[in-house]
Amino acid sequence: MSTLDSRGADLGKDLDATVRARRxxxxxxxxxxxxxxxxxxxxxxxxxxxxxxRRHLAEQQMAAARGGRPSRSADSWAERFGFALxxxxxxxxLSAIGGAFxxxxxxxxxxxGVVGVNAAQAVRANxxxxxxxxxxxxxxDDR
Length: 143
Description:
By secondary structure, the chain is an all-alpha fold. The longest helix has 49 residues. The protein is built from four helices and no strands.
């Protein structure tokens, strides 16, 4: 049984005990019994959140100690691929609209916008793309 399962079972036992106590004590103690049970639930939630925050901070510290960027799940490969795919799919009707209203210059403007949006997304996800550090120059390629 995992830790999560045992905590859920413990919480179930606490709820059963609270219901049994209510039956024995009557409705006069409802408020106190509910408050007591909710305090136990709140403590379990606090413990779970604390554990997750500590784990997340430890992962960030490990990534920083290794010299890498902390992982950002929002910048996953799937998200970047999805963004590029959606922008290209939307580029088709936008090109038609741009071509209908502006001719060839409308199509060019549309595609400049598509490329610009994708470039902005790439720079947002990888700010180091704007720096010269890490890029190879033409001189490096000749060697």
